[in-house]
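Example record

Each entry pairs one chain with its bound ligand, GLP.
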Amino acid sequence: MRLSIRDSPEQVGLYVGDYLAKRINEFKPSAEKPLFVLGLPTGSSPLPTYQRLVELVQRGDLSFKNVVTFNMDEYVGLPRDHPESYHTFMYTNFFSKIDIQPNNTHILDGEAEDLLHECAEYERKIKSVGGIDIFMGGMGEDGHLAFNEPGSSLVSRTRIKTLAYDTILANARFFNNDLSAVPRMALTVGIATLMDAREVILVVTGQKKAMALAQCIENGINHFWTASALHSHPWSLLVCDEDATLELRVKTVRYFKSIEKVQDEVEAKYGGAAVRKTRVNGVH
Ligand SMILES: N[C@@H]1[C@@H](O)[C@H](O)[C@@H](COP(=O)(O)O)O[C@@H]1O
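Structure tokens for the complex follow.
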């Protein structure tokens, strides 16, 4: 797992947005693989990344016409046109501003009559397009990934999940601070669904995430901080801002900054594509 530390949430957005754009632009559609498959999150952390991607599309430097997306999660029982549904979030902040074909976007249906079937179908659809190329995610204050709350199985798949009280509290800000209005359940991809992606990138910003980031980075793989599962992923990257590093040891921060310095030197010498190739072949 790599950790890249940028100065601010805006810099995180620029870095991750530019990286995703590069990967999408490098993708060459073929008969066997016509679409680049991107996993996406909601939340405030990825907003600067979405803004950057929108900017690049509007400038003509990026197109989503060969991209298919799968979102991580959705509340159960919230109508999709509710202002706080993840359907509304994605449409308002991203899909309505880019050139993606609406039928290439997928979000779990939290109002499906048969929720178990909805989850199984989601896994099937991901497989049918050849799996996810890059899954971008955020992280909850308790270290959760998507809605894989503390204690979630690290081999979990897309399923119905009861939300942790901490998550209900954290998300109440979107529901006029009315705790009773926050849904108690969600549909979410599992940790194993995320781990199946060829590459995973998490955006982690703000002091509120500092404890979770330290637990995930410094304390090994632990099912109580589910994002820590990414230590065993062959190609995972966490991009955080300075505020999110506040609970990390100085030595840890310096270590990852030094790695990045060497990485930059290597990329300058051999080029990013060559470095990525070594990662695909398992050297990471
Ligand atoms: N299910 C979402 C997560 O996918 C997201 O990462 C988290 C953090 O959101 P924010 O980025 O707003 O802190 O919120 C929710 O719980």
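Residues 41-45, 72-73, 138-140, 146-147, 167 surround GLP (CB under 6 Å).
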